[in-house]
Design goal:
SH3 type barrels, five-stranded antiparallel beta sheet, three-stranded antiparallel beta sheet, about 20% helix
Length: about 180
Amino acid sequence: MRSLFNVALHRKRLTLVCAGVVVTLAVLDQPRAVVAPETRAAHAAPVSAATSVVPSVALPPRKLLGPLRNDPFASRVETPKPPPPRAAEPETGTPTQVAPAVPYRYVGTVRYEGRLRVVLALGERIHIAAPGEGVDDVYLVAKVISDTVTLLYRPLGTYHELSLVADPNSPQHAVAVNSR
């Protein structure tokens, strides 16, 4: 029952929309009277004195505006400001020393005699050291974690962290942690 009512309602709406479109087209399609320009002026109503006329706005002459401050068409290239003066750095007699790159590659860890030891490779040489032991009298194994080892560069007291390398052909990059 409701569906029949909805169909009838939709038909009425569609009929009204179509009728509106037809009426609109009929109104727009009516011919218009074309009036020649000469006759337009003759058919126009004469302006009476009672009708108010809006006065036209006249622009002031150019000389009353005054001169321009600058040329609007000039190039806008500005000279850059000079950089601020540098603060004088105090010179010290000795340059700061930097630790060399760590030559070792962290290969892994091994438990030997009940202690966790680090396996470091330098070319074809293998070094096995426990925390607190030295390597080549230049580096000291400071700390060992599962995938990183911290080495101390003894001459400068700089710590370096080495990460475990999965690929033996990739270069080892050490990260300087802190100094003394």
